[in-house]
Amino acid sequence: MRRFYVAEDLTPKKLEVEVTVPEKFSLTRFLSKGLVDGEEERMDDPVANATNESDVSAAVDTADEALVAQLVAMGFSENGCKHAAIATGKSNAEAAMEWIFSHMNDPDFDHPPSPARPGSKAAGESVNMDIVSSPMAMGFAESHAKCALKQTGNDPDRAAEWLFSRIADLDSAVADCDRGVVPPAASSGVDESSENRSDSKVVGDFSLVGFISHVGKNTNSGHYVCHMKKDGRWVIFNDDKVAVSQEPPLGAGYLYLFRRTDPQS
Questions:
Q1: Is pLDDT of 142 > 90?
Q2: Per-residue model confidence as pLDDT tens digits over 143-196
Q3: Among the four residues 100, 162, 206, 232, which has the most C-beta atoms within 10 Å?
Q4: Residue 139 and residue 102: Cα distance in Å, rounded?
């Protein structure tokens, strides 16, 4: 929460404003009840929703026209831009440009892309080695990173989501990938049927358990202290001093910590 501002004389000033923060709140009213009359489930991402290898091939082996136009405007050939859009899984212009600079001397760079053959591997399954380091930086093995990028058209964000959603049995998912099998969509482990979502046990009740505030006039003085709720009482942690807080400054916090308290927590 913003508590400081820069004055006209370019010095930091403190905003002495008290914010009303509830100690308890509920998000139950925002809980989805599933599709209602007149709504249709959207399938925006054909690659993410593909169920077999031929579906992935058909989804990936089509150049995104908007991305191609953006690349062509930069001075690259249209066919080369189509190759880049297909090879990078239509992720973004930056990834496509990196592919172009790495492959612009390929003999078939300016040739029209070949249509995917039924049953052949999708063009997006070619791993972009330049971005393998992104999932690996999160602690995943190289084989896991390559598999995730194959399955998500070299999109590092979707690859990370793919990995984390299969973390419980990642080796099996990677083994399927090595055999050329497209793993099914991972389950979140939660029954998402409308009956379960409307169950009284699935609510969103949260309680305030801690907050951090600042003692001092500006950023150049004072220090931060922490209040935590323990056994129904507020306790202040001020460096090595710990004591019960009779009147905690709930409205002066910079960072608030809430804990989910419903039966699903």
A1: no
A2: 888 888 888 877 778 888 888 888 878 888 888 777 766 555 544 444 444 444
A3: 162
A4: 27
pTM of the model as a whole: 0.41
Name, in order, each residue with C-beta under 8 angstroms of 179's C-beta and a sequence gap of 6 or more. none
- Whether the pLDDT of residue 202 is over 80: the answer is no
Q: Are 126 and 61 in contact (CB under 8 A)?
A: no
Nearest to 71 by CA among 86, 56, 60, 52: 86
What phi and psi, each to the nearest 5 degrees, are found at residue 44?
-75, -30
Q: Which stretches of the chain are assigned E, i.e. beta strand?
A: 4-6, 12-14, 24-26, 205-215, 223-230, 233-238, 241-244, 253-260
Find, among 183, 118, 96, the residue nearest to 147 by Cα: 183
Question: What are the Cα distances from residue 42, in Å, to 35, 46, 54, 95?
Answer: 11, 10, 21, 26
pLDDT in tens, 72-82: 888 889 888 88
β-strand partners of 224: 214
Q: Give which of 188, 214, 213 is closest to 202, Cα–Cα.
A: 188
**Structure confidence at residue 211 (pLDDT):** 94
Contacts of 227 (CB under 8 A, 6+ apart): 210, 211, 212, 213, 234, 235, 236, 237, 245, 248, 249
